[in-house]
Amino acid sequence: MIATIDGASFQRMVIHGAASINAQKQSINELNVFPVPDGDTGTNMSLTIGTSAAEMKKKAAKSVGQAASMHASALLRGARGNSGVILSVFFRSVARTLKEKETATIADFAQAMDAGVKGAYQAVMNPTEGTILSVMRAASECAAQLVELAPDQDFETLFVAIITAADAALDKTP
């Protein structure tokens, strides 16, 4: 049972997330059809988060706030395409929320996700439902509901719930 995440945990999450996106980038390329089926969304997301993963491997963060800040900064520098910019903006808001935290609870993480979603929606000139924004929002809303209904849950439970919510939202996208 993982009740909190620290800087090292956050860094491992980024590194493993980057590997997962890289492994699925072609599927993501094929999935994207909005605003046009440009076939590079997975590649752009992989390159963007790959920049952060490389940085996470170089320097150990002392806190979750520092790890989130390092991640957001690397994403900004490495952002490719619209999807990379959206990821960058999302995680910039996450980092701002976690800035002073040594460790994060699921409540902290849910709050950071909410801030990330709000930041991402504000960054897009004409936010369109049925896109990555909808998937982010569904995951964030799920996290908030879990914290409200069962605040003593652990990160494993949180991640299973938000991945399930994100998958359901993705199934509803065009």
Architecture blueprint of SSEs:
Elements: H1 7-31, H2 41-58, H3 64-78, H4 81-98, H5 106-123, H6 132-149, H7 155-171
Helix pairs in contact: 1-2, 1-3, 2-3, 2-4, 3-4, 4-5, 5-6, 6-7
- The stretches of 5 or more residues where confidence is low (pLDDT under 50) are none
CA-based gyration radius:
15 Å
Derived from helix and strand composition plus strand pairing, the structural class reads mainly alpha
The helix-strand sequence is HHHHHHH
Strand content: under 5%
Key terms:
single chain; mainly alpha; 0% strand; 174 residues
Question: Could you explain the architecture of this structure?
Answer:
This protein has 174 residues and is mainly alpha-helical. Helix 1 packs antiparallel against helix 2 (41-58), helix 1 runs parallel beside helix 3 (64-78) and helix 4 packs across helix 5. The radius of gyration is 15 Å and the shape is globular. The mean pLDDT is 93. The protein has helices at residues 7-31, 41-58, 64-78, 81-98, 106-123, 132-149, 155-171. Helices cover 74% and strands 0% of the residues.
Structure summary:
The chain is an all-alpha fold and 174 residues long. The protein has helices at residues 7-31, 41-58, 64-78, 81-98, 106-123, 132-149, 155-171.
